[in-house]
Amino acid sequence: MVLCEYMACMDSQDPEKALEYVEPDFRFLLALPGGQVSGQSREDFALYIAGRKAVVRVHNVLRSAVDGNLEMVYGVVTESGKPTGAFHSAAVVSANGKMARYQSFFTTSFELLDWPAAL
User: Fold this and answer.
1) Most CB atoms closer than 10 Å: which of 5, 19, 93, 117?
2) Tens digit of pLDDT per residue, the chain (119 long)?
3) For residue 18, which of 29, 8, 27 has the smallest C-alpha distance?
4) Can you tell me the distance from the alpha carbon of 98 to that of 85, in angstroms, rounded to the nearest whole number?
């Protein structure tokens, strides 16, 4: 899944590598507890990545699905090994195998699925 590969890059020591997984006209919406972040291009997304705090963050995917060119994941974010919240993300993948659109919701106050004890 392109979406899982993208998340692995975002969680790595080199999150800018995630830009390789998005189209030049990439459109995105990130709904975060502090507000929304959106953009209309790879450059807009690069600005978002550059502004993120450096932490040991992992997107632990608990469920995933693919329906044609739509990929969806649900999971738990951990920072320094501790769960911080749940996410539900979806991406439309282009014919080039890159994300054309991306929407992600992150909450610290509700989980759709119980978090595994291993987290």
Assistant:
1) 93
2) 999 999 999 999 999 999 999 999 999 999 999 999 999 999 999 999 999 887 789 999 999 999 999 999 999 999 988 999 999 999 999 999 999 999 999 999 999 998 887 67
3) 8
4) 26
Alpha helix stretches (DSSP H) within 1-119: 2-10, 42-51
> How many Cβ atoms from other residues are within 10 Å of residue 17's Cβ?
15
**C-alpha–C-alpha distance, residues 100 and 95, integer Å:** 9
Q: What is the pTM of this model?
A: 0.92
Instruction: Classify 91 as helix, strand or coil.
Output: strand
DSSP strand pairing (70-79 vs 99-107): unpaired
Q: 81-87 long-range contacts, Cβ below 8 Å, gap at least 24?
A: 81/56, 83/115, 83/119, 84/108, 85/33, 85/109, 86/110, 86/111, 86/112, 86/113, 86/115, 87/59
